[in-house]
Amino acid sequence: MDSLIPFTTSGSLVDCVDKKMLVILRDGRKLIGVLRSYDQFANLVLEDTTERIFHGSTYADVRVGVFLIRGENVVLLGEIDLDLEDEVPLKPVSYPLLEPLFKQDMTERKNREGVKAQILFEQKGFCREGGEGDGY
């Protein structure tokens, strides 16, 4: 039966349905949920989804429920090995405790990326993010 499905980007997702997946989005968010459906554009439907944030060697999850993800926003999609999931060497903490630290990390990262983009534009001739010629 699998040989009847053409091997395309979305066709290759058929084996991932009903499995626990990690999705990393273009904006940096990391979502963990059960892949329930997809279409020819690799738009995804995740069920029982949680968003995971990290700071140092800690992490926190917040439940977001059913999540519809536009395919063009997916950077990475990978299956989570349920046998190895509990062996992650990170410490879980409460979301309200970690959220301010995570937001501070993201602000610092955004500032660094802005400085880097400015240097690349001024000194190396790269285009600005979201500017003319940008693929996104």
UniProtKB/TrEMBL annotation:
GO terms for biological process: deadenylation-dependent decapping of nuclear-transcribed mRNA; mRNA processing; RNA splicing. Transmembrane segments: none annotated. The keyword Cytoplasm applies. Its main location: cytoplasm. Pfam families: LSM. It is found in: Cytoplasm; Cytoplasm, P-body. GO terms for molecular function: mRNA binding. GO terms for cellular component: Lsm1-7-Pat1 complex; P-body; ribonucleoprotein complex. Residues 8-83 form the Sm domain. It comes from the Eukaryota. PROSITE patterns: SM. Gene3D superfamilies: 2.30.30.100. Keywords: Cytoplasm, mRNA processing, mRNA splicing, Phosphoprotein, Ribonucleoprotein, RNA-binding. Belongs to the snRNP Sm proteins family. Component of the heptameric LSM1-LSM7 complex that forms a seven-membered ring structure with a donut shape. Plays a role in the degradation of histone mRNAs, the only eukaryotic mRNAs that are not polyadenylated. Probably also part of an LSm subunits-containing complex involved in the general process of mRNA degradation. Component of the cytoplasmic LSM1-LSM7 complex which is involved in mRNA degradation. PANTHER family: LSM1, U6 SNRNA-ASSOCIATED SM-LIKE PROTEIN LSM1. This is U6 snRNA-associated Sm-like protein LSm1. It comes from Rickenella mellea. The gene is LSM1.
